[in-house]
Amino acid sequence: MEFNTKNYDYLIVGAGPYGSIFAYEAAKRGKRSLIIERRAHIGGNMYTHKEHGINIHDFGAHIFHTDNKEVWDYVNQFTEFNGYINQVLADYKGELYNLPFNMNTFYQMWGVKTPEEAVAKIEEQKLAAGLTGTPRNLEEQAISLIGTDIYTKLIKGYTEKQWGRKATELPSFIIRRLPVRYTFDNNYFNHRYQGVPVDGYTAIFEKMLESELIDVQTSVDFFEHKDDYLAEFPKVVYTGMIDQFFDYKFGELEYRSVRFESETFESDNKQGNAVINYTDAETPFTRVMEWRHFDQKADEGYTVVTKEYPQDWERTKEAYYPVNDERNSELFRKYRKEADNVQNVIFGGRLGNYQYYDMDQVFNAALKAVEREFNK
Ligand code: UDP
Description:
Layout: E1 10-13, H1 17-28, E2 33-37, E3 48-51, E4 54-57, E5 64-66, H2 69-76, E6 89-92, E7 95-98, H3 103-110, H4 115-128, H5 138-163, E8 193-195, H6 202-208, E9 214-218, H7 226-232, E10 235-238, H8 242-245, E11 255-265, E12 275-278, E13 287-290, E14 303-312, E15 321-322, H9 326-340, E16 345-347, H10 349-352, H11 359-374
Parallel strand pairs: 1-2, 1-10, 2-9, 6-12, 10-16
Antiparallel strand pairs: 3-4, 5-8, 6-7, 11-14, 11-15, 12-13, 13-14
Helix pairs in contact: 1-11, 4-5
Bound molecules: uridine-5'-diphosphate (UDP).
């Protein structure tokens, strides 16, 4: 079968942020790309659609946040952001706490009112748990940072259902994604720039891909004709799972998946906040999003509420999170080394690089790849 009938310079596998930025930048330089996407839509996990004027994030809440001015300016070329600041609540068996871990949380948990009292409380719990050395896993890291009470009520249950394994078997970096601060500040992120696009994320991709030099084919699986694609295109940008690219020859990398259940209500406000986390072990979902609270433009009288359920990953399900524990990191290094020998393929994105990337990190990685490719 002939695929490269238009003499494309690039075949890009995946229409998520990495592939789309690459195609956009290639087009700016007069290069032609064909993007093939297994799913029926562009935008990868950033894809959003509108219901009752509300932007629904089909693959879970996406809040753009970054300290990288270059990335922030870059994404702002394609859209306007609404200034949304993420402030998450935790519901533990009916008790409500502010996240991330800050003076409001410490007050709610212990009644302490000053940073000094909060530090003393955490230090006492950390010592009682016998934790003085370098934390060896997520549990030890969490207790060292915020003590046993918060670990037990707000972290253990959520983490173990989110990842499907014990907190003692998870890498400590995962919990360091969340700020710990001794001020009364509920901003979920520490970054300087933050927001959600006024018109949803899909519009960003529509703009990125509008060039005549870019063709997009959705619902096309690279693996149906992998060898032909590789033979016919001078260069391939691959953003799928790296282990699948190599036919799992060293074994399968592990991923964690999630699924979503949405309901529409004739109401303006069901839960009063964009995100509420359910941090006990028994509730089967981890968080509930009410999308209208992410933007301000929703139609009156309707609200859409979505529950997020973690689930095991298998080949028929979407791979959301790489599991960057030692076994998988070691396995990834083997695939990465193998990838170094494939001259005409660039591997990128959350799945191609097996990294727990935030959106800004994917943007940054794509821009770096563009630099390497075109400033040679
Ligand atoms: N986490 C937790 N309790 C919470 C929220 C997060 O224990 O209420 C832990 C959990 O292990 C999670 C990690 O912190 O996987 C990172 O949370 P984040 O909100 O950054 O996860 P994401 O939005 O990427 O799924």
